[in-house]
Amino acid sequence: MSSVIDQIIHTAAKLSLAGITPSTAIVRAKLGGKVPMPQLIEGIARFKALSSDEIVQAAQVMSSSVSTVSAPQTSEQTADLQQQLKQLQQAYDALNARVAALEARLDGHA
């Protein structure tokens, strides 16, 4: 079974367990919108063929394997986000200083 189709089934199972009826639009949105329609349709069709026990298992099995695989990425992503935050804070501070300087100039002319 394809990895993309596994992700589709996993996402549909999680939605179903959350009380949301999986549709191609919802599943595509949850997966970031980059899923080819033929694979999306095949994954939804396979999901619909699962029993309720298999749905629970699909949601749980994929969750454990996804968390194991994505842990290193999460560290990398966290470091990237921290760097972006630092840059944004510096830009914010610089803009605040410029606004304060402009306000002081305006107060001096008024």
UniProtKB/TrEMBL annotation:
Residues forming coiled coils: 71-105
Protein name (record): KfrA N-terminal DNA-binding domain-containing protein
Organism from which the protein derives: Shewanella electrica
Keyword field: Coiled coil
